[in-house]
Amino acid sequence: MSQHQTATGERPASHLFYQSRMRRPLADRAEGIYIWDEHGRKVIDGSSGAMVVNIGHSNRNVLDAMKRQMDKATFAYRLHFENQPAEDLARRLSGYMPEGLDRVFFVSGGSEAVESCLKLARQWALATDQPERWKVISRFPSYHGSTLGALAVTGYDALKKPFLPMLRDMPHIKAPTAYLDRDNLSMEERGIRYADMLEEKILEEGAESVLAFIMEPIGGASTGALVAPDSYYPRIREICDKHGILLIHDEVMSGAGRTGRYLGGDHWNCRPDIVALSKGLGAGYCPLGAMIAHSRLVKPVLDRGGFAHGYTYAGNPLACAAGLTVLDEIERQDLLGNATRIGALLKAELEGLAERYPFIGDVRGKGLLLAAEFVSDRNTMAPLPKALEAHQRVVDIAYERGLIIYSRRTRGGVEGDHFLVCPPMITTEAQVGEIVTILDATLAQLAGELSL
Length: 452
Ligand code: PLP
Known about the structure:
The protein contains 13 helices and 14 strands. It is α/β, with parallel strands linked by helices. It has 2 domains: 13-55 and 334-450, Aspartate Aminotransferase, domain 1, CATH 3.90.1150.10; 61-332, Aspartate Aminotransferase, domain 2 (3-Layer(aba) Sandwich), CATH 3.40.640.10. A 7-stranded mixed β-sheet has the order 4-10-9-8-7-5-6, sandwiched between helices. Strands 11-12-14-13 form a 4-stranded antiparallel β-sheet, covered by helices on one side. Belongs to the class-III pyridoxal-phosphate-dependent aminotransferase family.
């Protein structure tokens, strides 16, 4: 009997809420970009968990900093005490933000961070005498979290549908899937066209009722590392300014350095009003997230009685000590530089694979937030038939061959299989070689099995 089966062969309680076709092994230990299971089998963590473990597993300096903090205090309630790690991390983080974003509100994860952004935006509207503003426009598809508020702005029907009676469904615009378009427009023109969909939606909804627009500057799993044309980003800001609407960047997956800049939006010098961060902030060492807001928004809220929102674990000293040392490691090892260099190398390798496997229709992303999409025809970009379940099979084959990747069957409003390759930012050139060798064999096996 395996250690994680009960005497009756049932899965134990901790597994009961998850449905998995493959019985997952127990993780035994992890180091760098590798994880070993209970049987001693070593696999490459090619998705950094869920794009979380940005600085790699078992970083000695982070573990030591956590141990030092554990010996001092692991909890001090925020209504009774400030704590030094939270203070230091807030100061350091605001140094990585666009100008003016210097109000940091800690939480324990991505959904909490998004929830906090939505609630701050609403309280800003109330504090500035705009009570009619409450709608938050977002993109379809998108993923902003699992709590009811974050789900209300999420563009992912299957996740949202069961809860529709319990939440206020928010308006969506199409994600900027310019790579799928077959028209005579340039990419820049397409970028403007997609951004203008926001203005159309604002006018359709009534500009006075719209509070904010939330987007992932570089898409995560829902779109497969979708990058909009350059023209999209400044036009979105322009439209938000024109209608007095707040711009929220959900950087839960794209932030904390994964794309080679600290924020995904930094590639275009974006100026969001509020940013949501998590995943790479605690980098898997502790649950940690943050909302970082422009002081211009926070001041009226504080003047009108304060931010009516909070979590018991917010600003936990142990989590913040971990986050602070994660930031130290990003700087000490120049991991932004490495994500840029290694990301460019890995992307070039993926493009090389796309030349050899014609069912790869697109390779995209920035830094180490990279994805490849499967198609049945590159000219039309038609997806593979759903029945092939290619996105599942590619993950299973890669795993059997020793590589963890992440996949989904969603793209701009229609179905399509993509997989993400997002190893930790410490990945070396030689390790890119290991990843690509496994991917190559995986794609060859997939092509054979599915007659692609
Ligand atoms: N926002 C984005 C862009 C995400 O990718 C995720 C998680 O994948 C979330 C929010 C929710 O984060 P969490 O699962 O930590 O609540």
